[in-house]
User: Fold this.
Amino acid sequence: MKRNKSLYSVVAFLVFVGMVICLSTPSQAQAEETVKLGFIAPMTGLFAGTGEPMSKGALLAVKMINEEGGILGKKVELFLRDNEIRPAIAVRMARELHKEQGISLFMGITSSGVALALKPVMEELNSLLITCAAHSTKVTGTEFSSNVFRITDDARTRNYALAKIINEKFPQVKRWANMSPDYAYGHSCWENFSEKMKELNPEFTVVADRWPKFGAGGGYGPHISAIMQAKPDGLYSVLYGGDMIAFIREAKQWGLFDKLKVFTTSHMDWDIPNAVKKGMVDVWMSEHYYAGAYDLPISKKYEEAFIKTYGKKYFLVAQGHGAPGFDAVYAYKAAIEKAKSFKVADIRKALEDLTIESPLGKKWIRGGDHQAYFDMPFMHIVPDSQQEVGWKVEWYKTLNGKDYIVSVEEALKR
Amino acid sequence: MNGKNRWVLSLTIFVIAFLLICPAFLPSFTLYLLNEMLIYGLFCYGFYLLFSHAGYLSFGQAAYFALGAYSVAIMYKHVTLNIWLPFLTVIAVTAIVATVLGFLSVRLGTLYFAFITLAFAQMIYAIVFRWTSFTGGDDGLPGVSRGMIDVYFLQIDLESPIYFYYFTLLIFLVLVFVLRKLVMSSFGLTLRSIRDNAERTSFIGVNPQRHLLIAFVISAIYCAIAGALHASLTKMAYPELSYWSTSAEPIIMTLIGGIYTFSGPFFGAVIYIFLKTYLMTMIGNWILFLGVVLLIIVLFFRKGVMGFIEEKWGVRL
Amino acid sequence: MDPGIVLIDLLNGLSRGMLYFLMASGLTLTFSVLGVINFAHGSLIMLGAYFAWTLLQVIGGGWFFFPIIIFSGIIVGVIGILIEIFFLRRIYESEHLYQLLLTFALIMIIDGLVLEIWGGMPRSMMLPGSLLGAVSIGGNFFPKYSLFILFCSTAVAILVWLFLYKTKFGKASRAAAADVEITSALGINVPFVYCGMFAIGAALAGFSGGLGLAMSSITPGVGAHIAVTCFAVIVIGGLGSLVGTLVAALILGIFEAFGDHYFPQVAMALPFIIMAVILLARPQGLFGRKG
Assistant:
């Protein structure tokens, strides 16, 4: 009897040890056979709407590359991990992918906070990260790391360009209100926009400055009421996701948009007008990508392949976040082919001052700050009851980031 | 000491020995996970003292976890990398805050206590979130150092994962040992007596409020040290550390391990982190799966894994 | 301060407050009769919103909106029945901790299912034309839909009161809330009352979700945010007191409306500050019973 019990205890303990050994099994598939890339983004929770399409873009790129023969003859494998937009989980996932799968090339990330959190981890693991969103200038500015790159535009470049457009179209609008999410990204965008606006038009005045909590998802009545009281002519807002949907719907109810001459944002995900539909308002905006603005063969290829794989309806919504995911994979491909090597140090060197072909045209990754500069799309959306979706893009233009570039020294200061 | 207890003792020694030598053969990610398990284990022990022995369910231990994390992050960044002062700060700050908040909370009785701990934790979350200049706001404080030990002739940089692991292990073993002594002492006995019937306990001359307050502060300190270690391990501090969902984790972990079993908190942390990490990597929708697991445990395995083993084999773990 | 704007803020507060009441009322009823604090309440609210969205997509908008939000409430009520029968029943006798953890598990399961079925993208509901736009109040504008929320919540509140005080089931529930043993001894089928009451609480949650989120957006995980506010409300009002829930909800709504407008820095912590103050000064809440 006693011996049996002891035996059970030993068995139980061995199970425990076995569990630990399972955890320690090194990656079965040899790293030499395939090129492994790690993708980390929120796929659950409030901001799953940004991570999901990004992952689809990346998967599409992997599929296309593999069909064309892979990278230097090797097939590409993409490993997706959810981080619930929490930095600690992103860190854990990065380590897991690095250890379990031998991955040193990462991409994804929608939140600047997470990008900043991953920076020391990338340096510790001698890995690279290409962020596909995360616009805060800090990522390639004050928190610059030789291991982190950004394949999409940053808050400054896009907002400077946006300010130029708005100033051209609406030179008489001087009284502005701002309603943006209270965190680094929101502040970074508004700072850059208002700075450039002031430079272009010294009479630019801020009459209302509201900072709702990021992710509140609604209940903006008091903010809207305060803005209306200030009687602005222009409104700027970088709320996104569910926040922007709620804001548009609520503000429309209040009649805010009827009182404005211009409503603008430096980033409006396509899922927002597609969700709001007939409730859409007049807005001057930008996104990661707009199919209508690009006519290159590679743009068509991206669009067709995306629609074929995921459907047209999904493309309309996901084309934006899908593009940087797509581009990041191609960036690694281009870098590896340029360096003719899979070593991290070589890939890093190759990525610096690399120009890649993207659905948005040529993207140039500056060596000094690891920031990509390219033709950014700007659109003017107007409500249109004739359209089934309730709105249409009435005007678009692309502006190249290089025209709004600051010197590397300047960039690293922000 | 009878046969079974001897087995428990040998197993305990085996586990500790394993924890001591494993860096030699474990791959770095597993070591990282194990490190996290030790840290969360400490967090759970903080919760465990307060709940299982004092009978007070706190929804806001995450507040101290966050306090510990931010204290260490700020001290390392602005004052010194030598661990002594930062950790002393963690203990001091936590002791002060916990004494004040604990004094206010403990008078309320178990149910309202739970709510007020939640309220305080959310308030600390809001403060941390909004006080951007000091705490980095929503971005948090990235790039937290792992510190270094600098005493007399000994200088060890804790950046290395193995050194940091031993650092965590040492703190863990010491604190768990202290907790064990505490729980087995007359103080522990008094706490459990208060838990079972506070009124009667007061009849024998004990001041329940004072004992509960002491337990609360000790619990908070454990949670804060865990938080400090967590900030160093993950190299960041961020507001979500004080959110109620972080408070829920030690509760779930301790339940899985065994809420009335001494080894429960640690093994609960081990199982939960193991499950969650592997679920997240294997299944897209891990939330659903984890919910089902929790449901099964609540309905059928109340006593948790270690509690179940305890019962079946008649030992005390 | 412009009195017109103050009025608008006040109306905002009332509308929001009444919505909070509607959302929290299910929680109060569940606690007072069953003695269980349902942490998954926020998830049920969110579920109601998602069901309403799907029904609107399938059936179309227009005046169908009204029956749809009621119907989505009923669907969640039915789900509530299933939850009560299969899960809640087992833990009435258990410690609070297990009740908490069970409902916590339910949160994860419901959130997981929502993610599985509806995916991660945020959703938006189409309001009927009659409720779009704003009305002019004293020279300022106020959204029609916010008035609608105010009106609906008040109507439902009255219905709930009538139900509790004028129907046999309602009286049985109140009796069970007061003293289960005697109620059972009087021949009332207590398990049936429990089940029904939970279902009603769930239905209220579902309905409030559809009603409340129609003007904003529906995202996965929004349930957790709402739940925390509901707890603040019931604690401030007093656990188990419906009148308390109403008063607390209105106070919170109004404080938040003015807070967001004039003191945005504090707004985030406001519900919890009030909650802590109440717990310290008068732990049983404004209208709760002592002990």
Observations:
- The beta strands of chain B are 141-142, 148-151, 154-157, 236-237.
- Residues 33-243 of chain B form one domain.
